[in-house]
Model the fold of this input.
Amino acid sequence: MDAPSPSYGKADGIGGRPDWFVPYGVDDEVRPAVARKGLIESPNTLATVAHAIMRDRFGDEWYWWDPLTVEMELRDEYGAEPSPQFMDRLHAVQVLMTGDAFFNRIDAFMGVCNAFSSGDPFFGTFDPVTAEEAAWGVAEAGMNRDMLEFSPTIRTYCRIVLSENGYGDDDVPPVFDAVFGGRAGISGASPGLVSEENGAELRGFVLEQVNDLVEQLKSVPDMKGLDMAILKNGVVSAISDRRRG
Done:
């Protein structure tokens, strides 16, 4: 399977603007809500941005909501019709945040990685992820929660897809440190986002996703500045600090 090509930021909307673009002239008072509505309805909104929107408004309560409740709350709060991809990424976040399945079960690992990269989780089916998809799944997981130890099955799978891309045991991209027992915790994936050790394609894909994440967060006026906080400390800490501030 070819690595997905992120569509966020491309000419999805009018005049070549992203599909979540907030039109000029929108009153400053309602611009934050309008921006959130656009991101909720976009098929290209990244999981970490979706998580930040939900965590900021609903706390951690939404982690246990069923899809119908999530959709109802988003309609009531923002007048939004969530895109299927937004909903699938939220479901992947719920899987990530409410247990250890992402770290222990290969089907959950692949489902979350697929959802984070393409918006299509393929839960319940076997859809192997590429090295790029696995890298972004691990990186984005590290932006959303503390990392746990990965099961031998997941570690073996990641070694296989990396070896198929020319990586040996001695040159594993740092973004996979959290998988193979290197750095732990929220910042475990962060060094791999900018390391020159990553191959051009893998590094380019991950960095493009990071750039998309930053631009999406900056599109919401009252979320500007969260991008660096999330990359450094994760969604939960960044939103908690924002609320205290």
